[in-house]
User: What shape does this take?
Amino acid sequence: MREKKADDSRKGRKWVIRGIKIFGMLVLLGGLFRLILFPPYKQPKVTGNLEVAVEEFTWVDESRVETFTDTGEKRALTVKFWYPKENGSYPLVVFSHGAFGVIDSNYSTCMELASNGYVVASIAHPYHAMFVKDVNGKVTMADMQFVKDIYAENGTGDPEAEERIYRHSREWMELRTADENFVIDTILEKAKGGENGLFAMVDREKIGLFGHSMGGASSAALGRIRDDIDAVIVLEGTMFGEYVGFEEGRQIYNEEPYPVPLLDINSRAAYEAAQSFPRQYINFYTGERAKEFREVIFNGAGHLNFTDLPLVSPILAKLLGIGKVDARICIENVNEVVLAWFDYYLKGKGEPDIKEEYS
Assistant: This one.
């Protein structure tokens, strides 16, 4: 009886050891996979001399019910801030990521701005982002219907499909601009209320917006809605908010002059593709009627070269769309242009030193 128990004990130890080995192999393989997908990389250079602090908050908008669930919960937004550690008064710049982007999509851009004297807030849009992790650890993934709507019949030219795209884009812009409005209002309320910390540093009279892709579109849309926005930058995003209706199989363009200085940044490929559209591209149309408008072209860039993803995950970025340009040089040039635009319109620093083309 004792021999059987000893034998069972030895077998048990063997299975435990074998289990530990298997678990170790899985951890190792998982680590290797993560290393391949997300290799170590050097952060793009930061030109400012201010040390940067980072904070994150999750705020609940009590005025809105979350439409992506049927629980009746209120919409919650996670916001990440980059700001100078040195006390002072700094302009506020708000960033909105693209469809399936993340809160850190343009981490290096936010760092560059903060190091040069800005309070930067990046909004994670739940169910539009690839994932959102709030301050309590809750993770929200992208909504699959939203993913399908993004890709369904995009750019087919078919009137019925174009009308569906128009309806969807209106929904997206309404959601995104409501998110941005809530975040800006919350920040300004905290700043006005004399709350200590980073909010005490916010200059409520100087506000800029920028975003990538759909985030650029919603930033441009919000520039029309609010009267306290001083400058807007669109990083390769179609300005859906400039569509004000749909008749006879096509969108109706907003004829009212765009009221805020607007910088439109695109890849050469996107710019040339827009030239071949049967109607004038909405960004070009809006630019012609803007108070102040600049167009900047990046040669050799792809859609995701306007984010940090090609550095964070070269394999994933290549699958999703990048150009042949050097990814590090490209994003550093993007960051330089973004800083120059906001320096001029939010700080009054000379003329923006921006070229028409970058390689």
About this structure: The radius of gyration is 23 Å. The first strand starts at residue 52 and ends at 65.
